Amino acid sequence: MSGLSTDAGTAPPECRIDAVDVHAFELPTDGPDGKESDGTLEWDSTTMVLVRVHAGGRTGLGYTYGDVSAASFVTSKLVPLLEGQAVTSPPALWQLMGRQIRNAGRPGVGAMARSAVDVALWDLKARLLELPLVRLLPAYHDRVPVYGSGGFTNYPLDRLADQLAGWVEQGIPRVKLKTSREPEQDPQRLTAVRKAIGEAPELFTDANGALGRKEALYWARRFHEEWDVRWLEEPVSSADLEGLRMLRERGPERLEIAAGEYAFTARDFVNLVEPPGVDCLQADVTRCGGITGVLEVAGLSATRDLDLSAHCAPALSAHAFCAVRRLRHLEYFHDHVRFERLVFDGTLSPEGGALRPDTDRPGLGLDVRWADAEPHRVYGTRTT
């Protein structure tokens, strides 16, 4: 049972937003030569845009991962809208923000900005009520299964195998590696990983849209037959809806096709499931409209009898996806785990292959470690 009050009532209707502050931090990768890569992209750092909303003597936080431009988007388009608004209904403010950014660009950076603010509003409301966020949400679960994710294409074989085997040793029964940047190199990479993790753990792959349709079908069959791969994420671009449908229909029966991490609006998700283009749908709480957006996608997945998998941001997703009835699992992504452990107190570690929200801490249970975050600042100034 939680040590927090369970009869805190509701936030007073006169409780209004006093201020919003916006920050961005950039963390270099720890990959070879300071870089990481997947099938279509190479990067040397990750940027977190952090939003804090203040009301009633409490502060809620939310964040997204992307370009620093998302921070200036929040500052210019959303902060003026939010100040003075009542905090009792995050979905009402989510809808208001959607109208505000219509002409500025609702998908992409606009959706990511709104996502960060929406999470902060839910966190704030939970803190005002002295409840853990999972207790405020319509939760179906008290934990979220995870899969270890990293396995970048520029990792040497020993680091690749050690990373994935390390997750298995922590009790995580499913792991994922990036593929398809140089497809001819994938057989030795998959062989090294399968040898390192053993036969029992589930092995996932992610092409990040690097392959053409027929090439993807060829590798889908090889991945499954030779290395017992059960999950192929974005074998083709997620914008290639016909290609996804072809892979789903013609690929191995026990190999699931997944996509959805780059869906920003409700229509993006509808396009993936009508007609069906995936076996498992994905959603990213930092891109799809925050917690309010996840709740909408959760309803869609349930009505289509499709499981929903959380894409990254584990410190947020562990709470948000407890409210997903057709929950599959959460991507425990190397870069985000590093970042969140650096910037926050209160992050979660997998236990028995799952993350369980801390019900003894209000809201998301996260507090900013300013001294550790400050050297990585690229936007905003510290506020109390």
Sum this structure up briefly.
This protein is of the alpha/beta class and 384 residues long. The chain has 14 helices and 17 strands. Helix 1 (69-82) packs across helix 4 (109-128), helix 2 (90-100) packs antiparallel against helix 4 (109-128) and helix 8 (213-227) packs parallel to helix 9 (241-250).
Please provide a written account of the structure.
38% of the residues lie in helices and 22% in strands. It has an 8-stranded parallel barrel, surrounded by 7 helices. Strands 5-4-1-17 form a 4-stranded antiparallel beta sheet. β7, α7 and β8 form a beta-alpha-beta unit. The protein is built from 14 helices and 17 strands. 53% of the residues are buried. It has 2 domains: 127 residues, 2-Layer Sandwich (Enolase-like, domain 1), CATH 3.30.390.10; 233 residues, Alpha-Beta Barrel (TIM Barrel). The N terminus is likely disordered. It has 384 residues and is α/β, with parallel strands linked by helices. α2 runs antiparallel to α4, α4 crosses α11 and α6 runs parallel beside α7. It is globular, with a radius of gyration of 20 Å.
Helix content: 25-40%
User: Alpha-carbon distance between the termini?
Assistant: 32 Å
Q: Quick one: overall form? A: globular
User: Which CATH architecture of the largest domain would you pick?
Assistant: Alpha-Beta Barrel
